[in-house]
UniProtKB/TrEMBL annotation:
Record's keyword annotation contains Acetylation: no
UniProt keyword terms in alphabetical order: Aminotransferase, Transferase
Cofactors (names): pyridoxal 5'-phosphate
GO molecular function: pyridoxal phosphate binding; succinyldiaminopimelate transaminase activity
Protein name: Succinyldiaminopimelate aminotransferase
Keyword set includes Nucleus: no
Domain Aminotransferase class I/classII large: 40-400
UniProt xrefs under InterPro entries: Aminotransferase_I/II_large (IPR004839), DapC_beta/gammaproteobac (IPR019878), LL-DAP_aminotransferase (IPR050881), PyrdxlP-dep_Trfase (IPR015424), PyrdxlP-dep_Trfase_major (IPR015421), PyrdxlP-dep_Trfase_small (IPR015422)
PANTHER family with a match to the protein in the record: AMINO ACID AMINOTRANSFERASE, L-GLUTAMINE--4-(METHYLSULFANYL)-2-OXOBUTANOATE AMINOTRANSFERASE
Organism ancestry: Bacteria, Pseudomonadati, Pseudomonadota, Gammaproteobacteria, Chromatiales
Length: 408
């Protein structure tokens, strides 16, 4: 006789949706793409540019010492100092604006930190709602559910690419414990401007929610003379020098081409950092010392980051030259994704047919979004990650163009 008892685990587990790449595997199951030319995966944002030699060397040199010591959750002082120096220089903050001891906490990449922040700081009994842009990085939704909270989708505006916050009622804001934002955005590549932050700061002052800004794509911008605005920088411009209620999340994965290093940090409001540090002490996710040593080398060098931007800039230039007249799209301000409106409007059908004809894998936009009463802002798009070598990406764009010309 079958048992009616609930499966083991917390209730939020049953509400988790399949991860986008699991859905993609199911969508493409049974399709045999052509073996020549070679398949190209554009579906996942895993950087393929070379790992900087200085980072690899620091990692190797630190292993022997690292293996015999427990790392502290707070991280090495020299790592926090390197991060504070980078933040001050990159976001034009005063020399004393970021205190390495009070405002910074190392993390095992942004994914770990973005998930953990909701577990640590959300009170689901008091303010259960977790707002997030739609489309979005699915970790936000999973974090809300597993913290006992309620995900609330903010559809992105088709023109601005920004989440629409004006239609949210005061009653809804009063139930908001935390809002996730991503700038530059995944998948749109749009940058949140100061005017948006000003509006959100006014709402936060009335309602007291935490702002969690995912800025992992902040260093992959197109215009070298205009780096993307960051949340801490927006705070400083408004006189919020304590970064009240605000946290930013950064990673070396995209900036320095080291996704396997699993290194990043959280920075912002000292009160929130203190609470988050207490949580992570029990969670047990301190960075190994050799990872921290390599991270110091990474945050202390900008040469490889500028070379990284140059490479992405060239790939986007070639992609636009090849695709713009057959599949128009809005040029991203930053990041390494093209958010492509698909001919015919069916993102799943386009993905399957493209893979069958060319061996190129893209990600349907609806796998990055949720349908709402106002529609599904991800449907009708595919996300393409220009992470491979320039020649590989250019070849993929030419195959996509030929596929579109022959099929639509």
């Amino acid at each position: 006789m079958a048992s009616d008892r609930q499966a083991p685990g917390q209730p939020g587990l049953a509400r988790l949706q399949p991860y986008p790449f699991e859905r993609l595997r199911a969508l493409l199951a049974g399709i045999e793409p052509p073996s020549e030319p070679a398949p190209v995966p554009l579906s996942i944002g895993e950087p393929k540019h070379p790992v900087p030699a200085s980072i690899a060397s620091a990692l190797k040199d630190g292993v022997a010492e690292s293996l015999g010591r427990y790392p502290a959750s707070a991280g090495l002082p020299e790592l926090r100092e390197a991060i504070a120096g980078w933040l001050g220089q990159r976001f034009r903050l005063d020399d004393t604006a970021v205190d390495p001891d009070r405002h910074i906490l190392p993390a095992a990449g942004t994914r770990e930190a973005l998930f953990a922040v909701t577990q640590a700081l959300l009170d689901p009994a008091d303010r259960p709602d977790v707002f997030m842009p739609n489309p979005f990085y699915q970790i936000y939704e999973g974090a809300a559910l597993l913290a006992g909270g309620r995900p609330r989708m903010l559809n992105t505006d088709a023109d601005s690419g920004l989440p629409v916050i004006e239609a949210v009622s005061d009653a809804d804001w009063a139930r908001c414990g935390l809002i996730y934002l991503c700038s530059p955005g995944n998948p749109t590549g749009r940058i949140i401007p100061q005017a948006f932050w000003q509006r959100l700061f006014r709402l936060q002052a009335r309602h007291g929610f935490v702002i969690a800004a995912d800025e992992c794509y902040s260093e992959l911008y197109r215009d070298e003379s205009h780096p993307p605005l960051g949340l801490l920088q927006a705070c400083a411009a408004e006189g919020r020098h304590g970064f009240e209620g605000c946290l930013v999340f950064h990673s070396l994965s995209k900036r320095s081409n080291v996704p396997g290093l699993r290194s990043g940090f959280i920075a912002g409001d000292a009160r929130l950092i203190q609470a988050f540090r207490a949580y992570r002490t029990y969670q047990g996710c301190a960075l190994p010392l050799h990872v921290q040593k390599a991270s110091v080398a990474a945050w202390s060098d900008e040469t490889h980051v500028r070379a990284n931007r140059d490479a992405y800039r060239e790939k986007f230039r070639r992609a636009r030259a090849i695709l713009a007249d057959v599949a128009p799209y809005r040029e991203p301000e930053a990041g390494f994704y093209i958010w492509l409106p698909v001919p015919g409007g069916d993102d799943e059908a386009f993905t399957r047919a493209l893979y069958a004809a060319t061996g190129i894998t893209v990600l349907p936009g609806r796998y990055l979004s949720r349908p709402t009463a106002d529609g599904d802002p991800g449907a009708g798009h595919v996300r393409m990650a220009l992470v491979a070598d320039t020649a590989v990406c250019e070849d993929a764009m030419r195959r996509i163009r030929q596929f579109i010309e022959q099929t639509y």
